[in-house]
Design goal:
This protein is of the alpha/beta class. The N and C termini lie far apart (about 115 Å). The structure holds uridine-diphosphate-N-acetylglucosamine (UD1) and calcium ion (CA).
Length: about 475
C-alpha cells in the first residue's frame, strides 16, 4: 500500500474581524468601520493586514448596517458571520466559530482598530502556534473605559476586568487589554460556548477566556505592540482625525527615511501608495499641502510644488510640478514642467521635456517629447507629436454635442494664440497655424494656415456713456 508522506504544512490560521458594533458616536449614515483612514475604510485596512498573514479564512462578524458593509467590501475571499444582536465580544467571536477550520489558531482583530501591523500579529500567532494563549496588552497614560490586565504578585497574568466591573484599586492599573489575541482554535471552540454574561453590562465578554485559560493551566503570554497607534480604536470623528494625523506622520517619516524632502511632514496626505525615487537617489521634494491618492510614483529628483493633488500617476525623473496642479490618472515623462494651475485629466501621456503651463487642461491626450502648451488651453482627445508649440488660448473642439472626435497634431507644428481646432482634424508636420484661426479642415504638412479676416477702423467712433438717472 502506498501511504503518502505526511508533509508539514504551515499551521492553519483563521482570522476573525469584529465589526458588528454600531458606532453611534460617529453620528454618520456611513457605518463606523467604513469611515476612512488615509482614504481607505478602516475595515479594509484590517482586512488587508489580515491578508498579509496568508490565513485560510478571514471571517468578518457583522451586524449593524451589515448590508451596507458587505456591499462596500465585497471581496470574494471573505466569509461573513452575522451577529443578530450585539451581546458582547465573546458572543461575536462565537458567531464566527462555525466558519473557522477546527485546526490551527485563530486571531481576533477589530474593524475599528485599523492600524494594527502584520509584524505584531505574526508575533501573537507564533506564540499561539505553540499551544498558548497570546494576548496583546499595552501600558497607557489614560486607561479609562478599557479592560485592565490583572496580574498576581509574581507578575503572572490572571485575568481581565472591564472598567464597569473594576474596583477602585483595579481602575488604577495602567496595563490595558487591546482586544487583540491569538489562540488555538480548539481552545476557543471549547471556551466560548461556556461564557456567561453575569457582569455589569450583561454581555458575553471575550476577555473572560483569559481567566479560564489560567484556571485550566494553559499558558498565557502577553505581548505589546511597537506603536500605540496600532491598538488605537476609533469611536468618534475627533479620534478618527487624530489617528489620521498619527498615521500620516508615520507615512511622512517613512518617506523622509527613504530620502524624500518634505517641506512639512505635518502637511502631507497620502491616501494610497506613494513611491519615491530609486534605490540609490531620491531627492524628491514635496512642498506643503499636497495630496497623493491611489498609486503614485515619483522618480528621483521630482519636485512637487505646494497645494498639488496627484492621483494614480507616474512622474518621470527631474520633472517639476508647480503649485496648484491636479494630475489624475496620467503618466508624465522626465524633465517635464507642469503647472502652476495645470489640470491633467485621465488618459493623458506626456513625454519627456513637455511643458504644460497655467490654466491648461489636458484630457486623454498624448504629448511627444519637448511639446509645449504654456497658457490657457484645452487639449482633449488629441495626439500631439514632438516639439509642438501650442499658443495661448488654443482649444481643441473635440465635442460636437453628441460625439467626441480626435485631433492629431504632428511633429514640429506651431499653433498661434486663440486657435480652434475643430475635430476630427489633422495638422500635418511642421505646419504653422496663424493666431485666431478656426481650423475645420485637415492641414497639409508645412506652410501657414490662417483664416482671412479684415481689420476695420472706425474714425469718429463714440464710446457709449452711462445715462444719468
Ligand atoms: C473591549 C474589551 C476591553 C478592551 C477594549 C479595547 C471586552 C469585553 N472588552 O471593550 O477589554 O479594553 O475592547 O477597545 O471585550 N463588537 C461586536 N459585537 C458585539 C460587541 C462588540 O462586533 O457584540 C465589536 C465592536 O464593533 C468593536 C469591538 O467588538 O469593534 C469592541 O467592542 P466594544 O463595545 O468597543 O468593546 P469595549 O466594551 O469597549
Ligand atoms: Ca469600545
Amino acid at each position: 500500500m502506498n501511504v503518502p508522506l505526511k508533509t508539514k504544512l504551515p499551521a492553519d490560521i483563521s482570522v476573525v474581524i469584529l465589526a458588528a458594533g454600531q458606532g453611534k458616536r460617529m453620528r454618520s449614515a456611513t457605518p463606523k468601520v467604513l469611515q476612512p483612514i488615509a482614504g481607505k475604510p478602516m475595515l479594509a485596512h484590517v482586512i488587508d493586514t489580515a491578508r498579509g498573514l496568508q490565513p485560510q479564512k478571514i471571517c468578518v462578524v457583522y451586524g449593524h448596517a451589515g448590508e451596507q458593509i458587505r456591499a462596500a467590501i465585497s471581496d470574494a475571499d471573505l466569509t461573513w458571520a452575522r451577529q443578530e444582536r450585539q451581546l458582547g465580544t465573546g458572543h461575536a467571536v462565537l458567531q464566527a466559530l462555525p466558519y473557522l477550520s477546527a485546526e490551527g489558531v485563530t486571531l481576533v482583530l477589530y474593524g475599528d482598530v485599523p492600524l494594527i501591523r502584520v509584524e505584531t500579529l505574526q508575533a501573537l500567532l507564533a506564540v499561539a502556534q505553540t499551544g498558548k494563549l497570546a494576548w496583546l496588552t499595552a501600558q497607557v497614560a489614560n486607561p479609562h473605559g478599557l479592560g485592565r490586565i490583572l496580574r498576581d504578585e509574581t507578575g503572572k497574568v490572571r485575568g481581565i476586568v472591564e472598567e464597569k466591573d473594576a474596583t477602585a484599586t483595579e481602575k488604577t492599573i495602567a496595563e490595558i487589554n487591546t482586544g487583540f489575541l491569538a489562540c488555538p482554535t480548539a481552545l476557543l471552540s471549547r471556551w466560548l460556548p461556556t461564557l456567561g454574561n453575569n457582569n455589569a453590562q450583561g454581555e458575553y465578554y471575550l476577555t473572560d477566556i483569559l481567566a479560564i485559560a489560567v484556571k485550566e493551566n494553559i499558558s498565557v503570554e502577553t505581548l505589546s505592540p511597537t506603536n500605540k497607534s496600532e491598538v488605537t480604536g476609533i469611536n468618534s470623528k475627533d479620534q478618527l482625525a487624530a489617528l489620521e494625523r498619527t498615521h500620516q506622520l508615520e507615512i511622512a517619516t517613512r518617506l523622509m527615511i527613504a530620502g524624500v524632502t518634505l517641506a512639512d511632514p505635518a502637511r502631507l496626505d497620502v491616501r494610497g501608495e506613494l513611491v519615491c525615487g530609486d534605490a540609490n537617489i531620491n531627492d524628491v521634494v514635496i512642498d506643503v499641502n499636497c495630496v497623493f491618492e491611489g498609486n503614485v510614483t515619483l522618480a528621483a529628483n521630482v519636485k512637487i510644488g505646494a497645494n498639488c493633488i496627484l492621483r494614480n500617476c507616474t512622474i518621470g525623473a527631474g520633472t517639476e510640478v508647480l503649485p496648484f496642479s491636479f494630475i489624475d490618472d496620467a503618466s508624465i515623462g522626465e524633465n517635464a514642467r507642469i503647472g502652476p494651475y495645470a489640470r491633467i485629466r485621465p488618459g493623458s501621456v506626456l513625454g519627456d521635456e513637455v511643458h504644460i503651463g497655467n490654466f491648461v487642461e489636458v484630457k486623454a491626450s498624448e504629448f511627444g517629447r519637448g511639446s509645449k502648451a504654456n497658457h490657457l488651453t484645452y487639449v482633449g482627445d488629441t495626439s500631439v507629436g514632438k516639439n509642438v508649440n501650442i499658443g495661448a488660448g488654443t482649444i481643441t473642439c473635440n465635442y460636437d454635442g453628441a460625439n467626441k472626435h480626435r485631433t492629431v497634431i504632428e511633429d514640429n507644428v506651431h499653433i498661434g494664440s486663440d486657435v480652434q481646432l475643430v475635430a476630427p482634424v489633422t495638422i500635418g508636420a511642421g505646419a504653422d497655424i496663424g493666431a485666431g484661426t478656426t481650423v475645420w479642415k485637415d492641414v497639409a504638412p508645412g506652410g501657414l494656415t490662417f483664416n482671412e479676416k479684415t481689420q476695420i477702423h472706425k474714425i469718429g467712433w463714440k464710446r457709449p456713456v452711462k445715462r444719468s438717472k
